[in-house]
Write a structure and sequence with these properties.
alpha/beta, 7-stranded mixed sheet, 46% helix, single chain
Length: 898
């Protein structure tokens, strides 16, 4: 009906030159019901009609007395039409100018081809629509709040645009299989890519601590505020999930207050604005940052299945109902959490894994951070020479810390360099603490009053102890927010607050008059907790190992967020929201602070006897823990290997071992590795973890198989595996962001030792350049039997090199080339390799762009091959029937699976 009306009007509006002008009165009559159905705000029309003396006060009173919005619109139309053409045109002009209020009518205005007359254009139009004004206010406030990134607890600010750098964002399936990378942020909301659950409404973004989840949300907020995020969102509400922990158990709040009180309050008619939000939930975007950081004793099992938007209820119940789509169904939501936080699949629409900086991202960030070209070149050279440091810098938070420390000390000493090759995360955080403490020291013009690290820590022992005690108390209960009372009771002075370890945050509780604090980052709270456990002499073995025990119990009972009340598998008293990564960081820092190299630093803070006792307790625990992690191995499909599939928490154990920097501890761990096939697939290992892996594996006495498939190793990680390549006979690195540079390192190292038999590089970023290095390795390394290099970017050039190498090799047993683009030229080269090959048994060339021409070459070559048993080919090759025909016509061939 409406479309038919528009078509009729279109014919009447677009008249040939010389025709009489269109009648706006007639236009309003024809489209009367469409206008009545789509005009939802009448006050803005009345205000503008009165401002231009088209309406009298009496007219306005007549309109207002009607009970429904539709009746009000009808009366306005009657009055406007009765006042003539000019008023009728001005009415349409207001609809066109106030886009935010009448956005549903914009397609209609375009369709009728309305262009205002010169006289009407001179008439002012003021947007008095409360919804539009609220949207403008919301954009202004969110733009202001997102413009700067707060550093050093509000003592330093940087423009978001000067510090934000893109990182790797990967769309993944529920099984964490890659579905492609996110190029533009709009793709997060694009249903054409990455949707894994049509019924879900939440984009779930996850990654390790410090990987850039919060700053990503700040970037999205900034783009929305500047109208540079075209996703159809008129409203943007952002929440930090940890603040929900501030609400008391008996607090209740309605949805309207949650949105307006804790974001931005409308200046006009909050009821109408809220009603608009309820009517059009698809125009709302929520961001919930840090879902794993909620800690509450509130019993979610008491939450009803459906919450009313108007009835007060506990804020956590509102949060859960929003995420489940029981409130504001159809709104857009982004939820972030640390890796390991399990979210119910039924709420997830897309799953996005943040991997941190790629090599190019790091270069861009370095250029952004160091504006001086000479200083930038110096830092880049030092990073290039130190793969361990590069790996740490792939995590944006740690990169920022390292760069800030370098910048600070470079301003003191012109020849200052980045930390050495065996730098640990504990070293980096100790350096950051030193920088913070140094910033509080007034320097002379000659800069000669800089104390050593040990002197600085000794002079501020009481401050460090007070901060550590508060961090520890919070960590015990998974509290990340501290009210003024707790800060004062911990004897933390105003001077201590100015050091920058704590920052003020907006409170969600009823204590708005008092300041509320949090540590600069959750990892900093973990560090101070570990520091307290070391320097507080009264800490016994039970307290020292407290958080190790938390993590070991977590391994057998992985928590699942949002499991109450619709998933009834929680333990009594267990917090359904959090994961335990902050405990793992605490344990890792504890190992670093109790390492032998740190004893000199702490000898003035705690007695050597106490350090020795704590260190002995820790090492004994690590030894026993290694046994439990590596028991229960099974036979591998590869002969002579006993395989153990470790849990993801084993990576944290390796990190702890590495932080000790003790060769004795490394040898102890290697002795407890009775299995010789270590399967670390899907363990969320990153490039920095390869230093920890090498730290243990290079002590292994026999040859070893190492499976690192489906992690985040990349080229930096491969470089850090160099110390253990002499032990590795099997190395699997599939789905790990490996490029040609990483393959070159593999070739250079593996060709030295001539022991590798299995090389897995499936689904990486390898081109023909990398394929040539693999080909050289096949030629030079007679022990190599299995090569998996499918789903890369290899064309006919790389395919030919690999085929020629296989042709020369007498030991190759299996080649996996699925999902490349070798084409017919590559197929012909593989045909020559297959001809009379003495050992090649399994071949995969499926999905390689091979046509009938290439297929015939392979089919003909197979007549002269007696070794191949399995040949994978896709039906699109159109040569399967030819292959069978030629095989039947030729000499006898052993049974062949195609």
């Amino acid at each position: 009906m409406e479309g038919q009306l528009c078509a009729n009007v279109d014919i009447s509006v677009r008249k040939p030159p010389g025709a009489s002008p269109q009648s706006f009165i007639a236009l309003l009559k024809v489209h009367r019901e469409l206008l009545v159905g789509r005009i939802r705000n009448t006050q803005c029309l009345i205000d503008n009609l009165m401002k231009n003396d088209y309406f009298s006060a009496e007219d306005a009173e007549i309109v207002v007395q009607f009970p429904t919005q539709a009746d009000k619109v009808r009366k306005i139309l009657d009055l406007v039409q009765s006042k003539g053409e000019e008023v009728s045109e001005y009415f349409i002009y207001v609809l066109q100018k106030v886009t935010d209020a009448y956005y549903e009518l914009q397609p209609w205005l375009d369709e009728i081809g309305y262009e205002p007359s010169e006289s009407i254009c001179s008439k002012p139009v003021v947007n008095t629509d409360p919804v539009s004004r609220y949207c403008q206010k919301l954009r202004h406030e969110l733009g202001r709040d997102s413009k700067f990134v707060m550093l050093y607890a509000q003592r330093e600010e940087m423009l978001l645009e000067e510090i934000y750098s893109d990182s790797i964002m990967e769309l993944v399936s529920f099984n964490n299989e890659s579905l492609g990378q996110v190029g533009q942020l709009e793709a997060l909301f694009d249903d054409a890519v990455g949707v894994i659950n049509e019924d879900g409404e939440t984009v779930y973004v996850y990654g390790d601590a410090g990987i850039g989840k919060s700053i990503l949300l700040q970037k999205i907020q900034s783009l929305w505020a500047r109208k540079e995020l075209d996703i159809g969102a008129k409203f943007f509400f952002r929440f930090r999930c940890r603040m929900f922990s501030c609400f008391k158990e008996d607090e209740a709040i309605c949805l309207k207050d949650l949105l307006f009180k804790y974001n931005c309050y409308p200046d006009q008619d909050p009821t109408e604005v809220f009603h608009h939000i309820l009517q059009f939930p698809h125009t709302v975007l929520f961001t919930f940052d840090g879902f794993d950081e909620i800690y509450s004793n509130f019993d979610l099992s008491s939450v009803p299945e459906i919450c009313s938007p108007n009835e007060p209820i506990h804020p956590l119940a509102l949060l859960v109902s929003l995420l489940r789509g029981k409130l504001l169904k159809g709104c857009k939501k982004i939820l972030t959490a640390r890796t390991g936080t399990e979210i119910q699949k039924n709420i997830i629409r897309k799953k996005v894994f943040l991997r941190g900086f790629s090599k190019n991202n790091l270069k861009e960030y370095t250029a952004m951070f160091f504006r001086d070209e000479r200083q930038r070149a110096l830092v880049s050279n030092q990073l290039e020479a130190n793969p361990n440091l590069c790996s740490l810098c792939s995590v944006p938070l740690f990169c920022w810390i390292i760069f800030k420390c370098y910048e600070h000390f470079h301003s003191m000493f012109d020849n200052h360099e980045l930390p050495g090759s065996s730098v640990t995360l504990t070293d980096v955080f100790l350096l950051m603490i030193e920088v913070h403490l140094n910033r509080s020291v007034k320097t002379s013009l000659l800069k000669n009053n800089i104390r050593s690290q040990a002197e600085m820590f000794k002079s501020r022992k009481e401050t460090l102890l007070a901060l550590g005690k508060m961090a520890y108390k919070g960590m015990e209960n998974s509290f990340f927010i501290f009210e003024q009372e707790k800060v004062s009771s911990a004897n933390i002075s105003e001077e201590d607050l100015q050091l920058g370890f704590l920052r003020t945050v907006k409170s969600y509780s009823g204590c708005d008059s008092q300041a509320t604090y949090e540590f600069l980052h959750v990892t900093l709270q973990s560090f101070f907790t570990a520091l307290f456990l070391v320097i507080e002499e009264k800490v016994g073995a039970k307290e020292l190992l407290e958080f190790f025990n938390e993590c070991s119990s977590f391994e057998t009972a992985q928590p699942t967020c949002l499991r109450i009340p619709w998933l009834k598998k929680h333990l009594a008293g267990e917090n359904p929201f959090q994961n335990k990564e902050h405990f793992n960081f605490t344990n890792m820092f504890l190992c670093g602070l109790l390492s032998g190299s740190k004893q000199k630093l702490f000898r003035h803070l705690v007695s050597p006897a106490v350090i020795k006792r704590k260190r002995k307790t820790l090492i004994t625990y690590l030894a026993e823990s290694m046994k439990s992690h590596l028991k229960g191995f099974t036979r591998s499909r590869l002969t002579s290997y006993n395989q153990v599939q470790v849990q993801p928490n084993f990576v944290w154990m390796l990190r702890c071992l590495y932080e000790t920097q003790s060769e004795k501890v490394g040898r102890m761990a290697a002795r407890r590795m009775h299995a010789n096939y270590i399967k670390l697939a899907y363990c969320n290992a990153c490039s920095a973890d390869c230093s920890a892996i090498s730290f243990v594996v290079h002590h292994f006495q026999k040859r070893l198989a190492l499976d690192l498939d489906n992690n985040n190793i990349n080229d930096y990680g491969i470089k850090q595996l160099q110390p253990c390549f002499s032990k590795l006979a099997v190395i699997r690195l599939s789905v790990n962001q490996v490029t040609d540079h990483g393959v070159r390192i593999l070739y250079e190292e593996l060709s030295k030792y001539q022991i590798v038999s299995f090389l897995g590089l499936y689904n990486n970023q390898i081109t023909d350049v990398g394929a040539k290095y693999v080909a050289k390795l096949i030629e030079e390394c007679s022990s190599l039997e299995y090569v998996k290099i499918g789903a890369n970017k290899i064309t006919s050039e790389g395919g030919k090199c690999l085929a020629q190498a296989i042709q020369k090799s007498k030991t190759m047993f299996e080649i996996g080339m699925w999902g490349n683009q070798v084409g017919d030229e590559g197929a012909k080269a593989f045909a020559e390799a297959l001809r009379n090959h003495p050992r090649l048994t399994n071949v995969s060339l499926a999905f390689n762009g091979i046509t009938t021409e290439g297929g015939k070459s392979i089919a003909e070559a197979m007549q002269h091959n007696n070794s191949v048993r399995i040949f994978w080919a896709s039906l699109q090759y159109l040569f399967v029937s030819s292959l069978y025909k030629l095989l039947r016509a030729g000499t006898a061939h052993p049974p062949l699976a195609v």
